[in-house]
Design goal:
Layout (H helix, E strand, L loop, with lengths): L15 E3 L9 E3 L11 H11 L7 E5 L5 H8 L4 E6 L2 H13 L5 E5 L2 H7 L5 E6 L8 H10 L3 E12 L11 E9 L2 E8 L2
Parallel strand pairs: 3-4, 3-6, 4-5, 6-7
Antiparallel strand pairs: 1-2, 7-9, 8-9
Helix pairs in contact: 4-5
Length: 197
């Protein structure tokens, strides 16, 4: 993460992440010092949740490869019913748990677990919104999307947010999903898909 000094106190500071809107608007969260940890930028989060506004209230959310948990926490702040965070780094998972406790978020669960293993081996439950933002170089997008579909993790007409490198192909998106939105910002490509009935 690149540090930027700013006179605007509302902006995220080095080592911290700002919640954009909702009940916890402008609250700052700690960012774990984990190599390669790449929080979803504030501008992208704002765009994403503008897209999700009609669907976020009372939604059951799954944040895979959660990292800072910025996406799932933003969803809870805006009225999601529940969020499950899957993060394999012990340091990142511990920091995420501490941030949730500081927010008094009693409708959140953090599991220190590999996302692929979680989807492949855990008892499936259905989620309305899934945030899928694995490390770009790991090329896990296709396998995670396949497991979400094949193992019945998705509620009817679920929304799946996928974040990837600008040069990566959207061929990871299953044929039975429909891409609703598709944008790029800098080196990041992000899209929102909906699952068919």
């Amino acid at each position: 993460m690149v540090s930027r000094k700013s006179a605007d106190k509302k902006k995220s500071q080095s080592g911290q992440l700002r919640i954009v809107a909702g009940n916890w608007r402008s609250r700052l969260l700690e960012i774990a010092e984990v190599p390669g940890l790449r929080p979803t930028p504030e501008r992208i989060r704002e765009t994403l949740f503008n897209w999700l506004t009609p669907d976020i209230h009372a939604a059951r959310c799954l944040d895979l490869c959660a990292g800072t948990g910025a996406l799932g926490i933003e969803a809870l702040s805006r009225g999601a019913r529940r969020a499950v965070f899957i993060e394999k780094s012990a340091i990142a998972a511990k920091t995420l748990q501490s941030n949730l406790e500081a927010l008094d978020a009693n409708n959140a669960t953090v599991l220190k677990m590999d996302a692929t293993k979680y989807l492949a081996e855990s008892e499936p439950e259905q989620f309305d919104i899934v945030f899928l933002d694995p490390p770009f170089a790991a090329e896990l997008h296709g396998e995670l999307c396949r497991l979400l579909t094949d193992r019945d993790w998705l509620a009817r007409r679920a929304r799946v947010y996928v974040e990837m490198g600008k040069g990566q192909s959207e061929s990871c998106i299953p044929e039975q999903w429909q891409v609703l939105r598709n944008k790029t910002a800098g080196n990041v490509r992000y899209l929102l898909a909906i699952t068919n009935d």
